[in-house]
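Backbone shape codes
____________________
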Amino acid sequence: MSDREEHVVAVLGAGTMGHGIAQVCARAGFETRLADVDVPAAAAGRAKLEQSLARLVEKKKLSADDASATLARVRAVDADAACAGATIVIEAAPEKMELKVDLLRRASKGADPRALFASNTSSLSITELGQRLGAPERTLGTHFFNPPPVMELLELVRGVGTSDESIERALAFAAALGKTPIVIRDFPGFATSRLGVCIGAEAIRMLEQGVGKVADIDRAMELGYRHPMGPLKLSDLVGLDVRLAILEHLHRELGEVFRPPVLLRQMVRAGRLGKKSGHGFYRWTDAGPEPSDV
């Protein structure tokens, strides 16, 4: 008999990360509720999830029956319905502490009494989030990577008040999702964001200073250090606005080494946010990304 905990998962936020996380949870066999600012927004996220599953079937990476079963486990609902009786609540909202606190406070009113409250934040304090929520022992970070159905890593972030039991439950949940977890102490930027934005920011500074072109800077890390994707292309994929927000937070918390490059600020102001806007350090075309030197 399996001793796996049969979670009911609420995912708050149906954007790129949210619907991807919902897909991972549903494919692992968990009942999954997807919510956003309203039900139509949640339904739009579920539709993107359905498209993602269809692509996997087309590529013969998933059977049509498994795709149908996965989709059947996902409901697009409002936030209150999503959280009712949920045993794990994962918020995938924008990087704003007040928004995350508000979402999880509302979630706590209807969730299971033992529910884990998890944040997909890439840099904000889990300790502060848990304290303000009033459930520090059951609050932790579950930092998924884009795209969640593909990326193996799950960074679990332990706040000062997070209990051993919650970490053990989160590790078991990660295993059920087929992810490889790491457990990181709550500190600005955790492990992955701190390392990732350092490389990304330095690549942007090199471009800013004319050291090399976009394709060559990325190729240096892909071929010289075996990175699967160069730092400028990865920044486009994450979103330049997201990268800027993380750098601004780390600059406040940790100092000058994380000061955002001027070029990054200019690109965000110009609406060049990367893949989601169609243009960042690359132009994202139907034929694939094309380097766009600035």
